[in-house]
Amino acid sequence: MAHVPAAQRRPQLIDAAIDLMRREGAAAGSTRAVAAELGVAQMTVHYVFGSKAEFTRAVFEELGRRIVDQVRPFAEHAAGGGFAGSLAHTVRVLWRVSTEDRGVAILWDELSVQALRDPVLREAYGEHAMDMLRVTTELLTTLAERNGTALAAPAPVVARFFLAAFEGLLSQHLAAPDEAAEQRCLEQVIAATVALATGDLPS
Fold first, then answer.
1. pLDDT tens, 153-174?
2. Which secondary-structure segment (H or E) carries 77?
3. Cβ neighbour number for residue 156 with a 10 Å cutoff
4. Percent above pLDDT 70 for the chain
5. Domain ranges in the chain?
6. What is the distance, to the nearest Å, from the Cα of residue 12 to the centroid of all Cα atoms in its chain?
7. CA–CA dist 182, 203 (Å, integer)
8. DSSP summary character for residue 26
9. pLDDT of residue 1
10. Measured by CB atoms within 10 angstroms of the end CB, which terminus of the chain is less buried, N or C?
11. For residue 79, how many C-alpha atoms fall within 13 Å in the half-sphere facing its CB?
12. CATH code for residues 1-50
């Protein structure tokens, strides 16, 4: 392929890596295989990213960005129903986006386990997890401020609670899908998150 600046090659390599691993699994995403997927020399991958950890971090960031870019407009423009209604609408969109591509959802889990088992990659995964927590905290804060709702618990605590419940439900969806049960559970996750955020907890 013709010479392409590193800044332009970077997103091409990330997209190629995600496409490859989505089809064949995270284990298939070696720098050699990703280079072959795009039709460039393996050295190109090392030149653009510098290390396997940086390459993995870039893939995590792109996967997260794709979801956030689809969900953020709904959070920023959700109207009606106050804080609870806006949050519910946003979470339902997030669920749809997270489950519509099974290959990507599985890739999330595979990369997470792979990174946690590798001391070099663990830091990249930790940074990704903190970034998702930050973005969720920002969205919760935005919804609360727009609807004039004072949060009864710190936004990062509410965000951590929500992510734990949502990601657990997503893992169950991948292992043993049951649409009716998942919808009931999702509504309970929404209700519990609203209760924690507003302080309207059962006595």
1. 999 999 999 999 999 999 999 9
2. helix 52-77
3. 14
4. 94
5. 1-50, 52-198
6. 20
7. 26
8. G
9. 45
10. C
11. 1
12. 1.10.10
Distance of CA 64 to the CA centre of its chain: 4
Q: What proportions of the chain, in percent to the nearest 5, are helix, strand and coil?
A: 80, 0, 20
Q: φ and ψ at 65, to 5 degrees?
A: -60, -40
Tokens (6 digits) for 184: 């009931």
Contact criterion met (CB below 8 Å) for 55 and 49: yes
Residue 35 tokens, joined: 């280079």
List the structure tokens of 193.
């998150």
DSSP for residue 117 = T
φ/ψ (deg, to 5) at 164: -60, -45
Single-letter code of the amino acid located at 149? T
DSSP state of 64: H
Burial class (CB in 10 A: 0-12, 13-18, 19+), 7: exposed
The number of residues making up the chain comes to: 203
Residue 41 CA to residue 44 CA, distance in Å, equals 5
| Between 33 and 4, the higher pLDDT residue | 33
pTM of the model: 0.85
